[in-house]
Write a structure and sequence with these properties.
Shape: globular
Oligomer: single chain
Strand order of the largest sheet: 1-10-11-12-13-20-17-16-15
Length: 716
Amino acid sequence: MKYQKLCLAMIAGLLHFTSQAQKIDRKALVERHTIINTQADSLGSLSVGNGRFAFTVDITGLQTFPEYYAKGVPLGTQSEWGWHSFIDTVGYKFEESLKTYNINGRPISYSVQVNTPKRNKEASDWFRQNAHRLQLSNLGFEIIKKDCSIAAISDIKNIHQELNMWRGEIVSNFTVEGVPVKVLTYCHQQKDVIAVKVSSPLLSEGRLKIRLKFPFPTNEFADMGVDYHHPEKHRSEIEYTDNHNANVIHQLDSEVYETHFKWDDKAIMQKGKASHEFILSPGKEATTFQFSCMFKQRYPIKKLLIEPGFSETQSNSIAEWPKFWMRGGAVDLSGSKDKRAGELERRIVTSQYLTKIQCSGNYPPQETGLTYNSWYGKPHLEMHWWHGIHFALWGRPDLLENSMRWYSGRVEERAKGIAQRQGFKGARWQKMTDPDGNESPSSVGAFLIWQQPHFIYFAELDYRAHPTLETLRKYKEQVFATAEFMASYAYFDKAKGRYVLGPGMIPSQEVHNQATTFNPPYELTYWHWALNVAQQWRERLKMGRDKQWDDVINKLSPLPQKDGVYLEAESAPDSYTNPKDITDHPSTLAAYGMLPYTPMMDTTVMRNTLNLIWKVWDWPKTWGWDFPMTAMTATRLNMPEKAIDALFMPIMTNTYLSNGHNYQDKRLTLYLPGNGGLLAAVAMMCAGWDGCQVKNPGFPKNGQWKVKWEGLQKMP
């Protein structure tokens, strides 16, 4: 009897172990979060893309009603190569955007937004607005009703649209005056090509056509791709067309690009009635029409680019997307009793899809990705951490490596130029920039410093993934140039015998004044950690430690605190009583959330700080990445209930739309740092960090959470 009981116990244990070790059914995981639209919703548009190019569609599967979506998630067509600058007819000089400040006893120039004199203001505005990212085109249907009028969005009925993220496939079904239409939409994963197949009796009636329109750049903060004014200021024409191809060129000043169509059956490409409008009319012989459309730059020397057709692009998408999902990490929360688990799993899956198609290219992404312009389409390098580090934590470090290469070459030289102009060593990485690394005038961004250590963090993550001499050699120049700047930026206060950060800086919580702010805890901790990592890189390369870097590490100012909590800065003793100071990012928490423990940190004080911030902060005045940042800090402090609560704080900027986008407000209807932050936080909540021994440290141990994961990496 005892032997039988022992055998049964062993079998039960084996079954339990087998169940625990069983791999996640990734296809089922992804497909249970297939996005479904059954009505027109300006915030519900869907995208396909490949990380370097993205195409966003409405309920028809194309961009048929761009004006309707303009105030929601717009119907964008953007690429990493599509940039434009208006011709400078005045002859502005970048030096005209510079303003000199006296900081720590010496003059330092910064590129800022100035109001006077008029010439300097205009120069500052010009360099801030140019270059800007282009909305390449609007590609939609022209649907003709029985009375010969053009269908409006109210005429689209019986809508059922699905985005299958496992296949990278959008299937759109709808009717117009009772006639069914079915549309398949894909994006090639190596080329900037979309492919579309439409099936409908409307084709044989000549009532369904493809319409291409070219918008004009707004030269404003945002560009939704619906400015069809100023037809005289740009040029477009059909360069050639035959029975199965057409090439349409579009020129804005010196920028020229091509839109090349390829189709199988009979069709005719003609100029439309409106300016910069072109109509592809399928023949009436069939009720099915399929085509592909490639977007590409125009080169002085014609390059032969073989465009894949519909079938090849469809096959490419269906083959490549499962490869993405099958490698790297996965998190399965099915079986959890907590009612929030299903929603968290949805956010995790959709965020992986969105960051893959919007943020995994060869350049740091803009905060609104490849959908529409914010800040003129320019990337902000302090956000690159939020956009990119999750790729490494989710076992896909190559997708972070893509944009790491951008920092070398002329970008690094320009960063060194900024440091040299300001009297520092090394490279001062840009804040708001463009593909060439040009500095953009900004009264806030020019004084931010928390982007400076990011490259060291990226490089260390890549070294963890590839701990080789080759990795060290690949990034050592940028790592050391970063550390050189950081060490020279820290100001030694002889009276106090310590190094100080600031003034002349604005912390990541941007409400503080550059002229008076110094020693914010997050930046101090980041300086300490990153300089130590840079020293480790020197030791790995048998170079020996840098004495100046060690001097800064050893004599860096302590984290400022008062009444048992950390202050937002040593210069802000009223951190939690001044209403202004409890808005924007509560980034004091980042010192032990985004970053690991350092000897500077007192975890008891940080716990007190988290509890106080949770209670008094003006949470509606925060941003999407503040919630995963708070969850990270709570996780490191062994407060998993608070970590989950942070991810689900009922604040507008913590909203995740049906398409997975993190909504902020009417100005920023999507915000990819929130999606990237969520993935980084979840990776930590599952896999932990260096030295963490707790299983799933960010999830409560109350029996309500069943957490299954694989392929995730520990955070530093």
